[in-house]
């Protein structure tokens, strides 16, 4: 389940990022950043599922929390 979600999120991040680069629609960047945050969260959960004491799983979850904070902060003040 998580691996399928990882593949779907990876494809959507690359697709949205390519679309933003080609069309120069910078107002879509928060959506792309949100998808990157969800992808990082899923990667952290996969790492924790593999090994309960995985350091990188906690790092990924912390990074996704920071990305969510940035998305909320930038969407409020833009």
From TrEMBL:
<keyword id="KW-1133">Transmembrane helix</keyword>
<feature type="transmembrane region" description="Helical">
    <location>
        <begin position="5"/>
        <end position="22"/>
    </location>
</feature>
<protein>
    <recommendedName>
        <fullName>DUF3953 domain-containing protein</fullName>
    </recommendedName>
</protein>
<dbReference type="InterPro" id="IPR025018">
    <property type="entry name" value="DUF3953"/>
</dbReference>
<dbReference type="Pfam" id="PF13129">
    <property type="entry name" value="DUF3953"/>
</dbReference>
<keyword id="KW-0472">Membrane</keyword>
<feature type="transmembrane region" description="Helical">
    <location>
        <begin position="55"/>
        <end position="75"/>
    </location>
</feature>
<feature type="transmembrane region" description="Helical">
    <location>
        <begin position="28"/>
        <end position="48"/>
    </location>
</feature>
<keyword id="KW-0812">Transmembrane</keyword>
């Amino acid at each position: 389940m998580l691996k399928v979600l990882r593949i779907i999120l990876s494809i959507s991040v690359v697709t949205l990022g390519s679309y933003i680069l080609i069309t120069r629609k910078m107002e879509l960047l928060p959506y792309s950043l949100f998808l990157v945050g969800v992808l990082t969260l899923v990667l952290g959960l996969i790492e924790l599922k593999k090994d309960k004491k995985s350091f990188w799983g906690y790092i990924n979850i912390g990074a996704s929390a920071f990305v969510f904070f940035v998305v909320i902060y930038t969407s409020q003040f833009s």
